[in-house]
Amino acid sequence: MTKTNDPLVKDGWFMEKNEMWPGQAAGLQVEEVLFHDKSEYQDVMVFRSSHHGNVLVLDNVIQATERDEFSYQEMITHLAMNSHPNPKQVLVIGGGDGGVLREVVKHPEVEGVTLVEIDEMVLRVAKEHMGEMAIGFDHPKVSVVIQDGVEFLRDKSNIYDVVIVDCSDPDGPAEGLFSYSFYEMLKRAMTDNGIFITQAEVMWLDMETIRKAVAFNRTIYPQVRYSYACVPSYPTGQIGFIVCSKDPTLDPSKPLRCWSEDEENKLCRYYSAAIHKASFILPQFAKRVLES
Ligand code: SPM
């Protein structure tokens, strides 16, 4: 059994307990705590686990494990990127671990990608301990801005073809990223046929929040779709995404650009054009709520 005095490790296990998923908690076995500190914004921890590689935890919530992070990062990135006819300028809000950047730069048509992350500590720790995820930071098309996403967007208009909001859950530094004014600014920052994607709860935990978020986005965008992916280390083993298009003729559930099977095999471990389409097919209980 691991011996550590870390307050988040009990009997050698990290347990992800949280009021956002009451009555359940997934646990990962800890081999060694590699980093644990408080930034200006949140509690930041990385541990080496017994079976999931290194694990990044923010405010006691698992953000990424080396074993399954590719599923989330590929899906939140390529669902949006492959729904756009020609994504040249991309904005990532949050995503300080670098995983989404790594995926965005797989698209050669991208001319520039800007990552806006509020917490510099997340970048530093990801570069040091989540090596494979953080490789995107070194790409020449990438610029990084350490700033609150809401502040960054204030004077931006008609710039980005794709905007990816890769945030943590709403009860921490990401709170402002769930506000009405943020969504308004986001839409203004996008080009006329812009695509926007955000992580958006999970069907098994809070269908009502998803219903409200989808309904709200439908007041702003002509096309709003809900999709999901399997991420075993997230609560319930899944995570959802809201994908919106400014162009009413562009349905994000159908990929506009597809890689060949060979390219898919080289570039991705989870995403494919077939998964893209299938991820928007929801179980009956969720479909009924979103169509009501
Ligand atoms: N680049 C990886 C960052 C991951 N950001 C999203 C993490 C969400 C984890 N909690 C999911 C619980 C359901 N709301």
UniProtKB/TrEMBL annotation:
A GO BP annotation: pantothenate biosynthetic process
Q: Which Gene3D superfamilies does this UniProt record tie to the protein?
A: Spermidine synthase, tetramerisation domain, Vaccinia Virus protein VP39
Q: What's the domain of life for this entry?
A: Eukaryota
- Protein's UniProt keywords contain Transferase: yes
Q: Catalytic residues per the record?
A: 166 (proton acceptor)
Instruction: Kindly state which keywords UniProt assigns to this record, in alphabetical order.
Output: Polyamine biosynthesis, Transferase
A single GO molecular-function term is: spermidine synthase activity
| PABS domain span | 11-246
Q: Which family does it belong to?
A: Belongs to the spermidine/spermine synthase family.
Q: Which HAMAP family match?
A: Spermidine_synth (MF_00198)
PANTHER family given in the database record: SPERMIDINE SYNTHASE, SPERMIDINE/SPERMINE SYNTHASE
Write the protein's name.
Answer: Spermidine synthase
Native organism is: Lichtheimia corymbifera JMRC:FSU:9682
